[in-house]
Amino acid sequence: MAFPRLISSFAAILFCANALADAPTVDAPLPVLAISERGELTLTDDEFSFIPWTSEGADLGKVHVIQYFGANLKNKDTFKPFTDLLQTSFEPGTISVTTILNLDAAMWGTTGMVMSELEKNKRMLPEASMIVDEDGIGVTDWNLGDAGTGLIILDEKGIVKYFSRQALSEAEMASTIQLMRNTMTK
What we know:
Glutaredoxin; 34% helix; 27% strand; globular; alpha/beta; 186 residues; single chain
């Protein structure tokens, strides 16, 4: 008799902990995500290093796109069509893009390959903000669901204007680009 009660109590605790997570909410400030294990990949004098990163105050003054996904083949291209569209829709430097990679989702034994690819990308795009979430805390802190992915659009003041946990359709991509343009002109 005690075992079923223990199971249901454990399930209730898990449900409550997940319910307390702050999913990004449109027209509200982005819930703070602080990553201290690894963090932002930096490149200085041809040397890579990591510094702690927080979403608090992330690139205020520009429309900001944050994409969060697992470091695995299943998730790596979830938002690629949208980020490719960003490159052709906006002049360089007019928006900020931050990529947060959940290293906890990487398949065992692939961390070295993931890090190598990330460093290669940082060399090609040194101005890009690339974050490594070693423990995958963003999945729970931002309540990103089973897929552990999220696309967030912030206005210049850090207010969430768009949030999706899944890949965008062509219509969603077009309307999100228009939303970003409208946000920039206000």
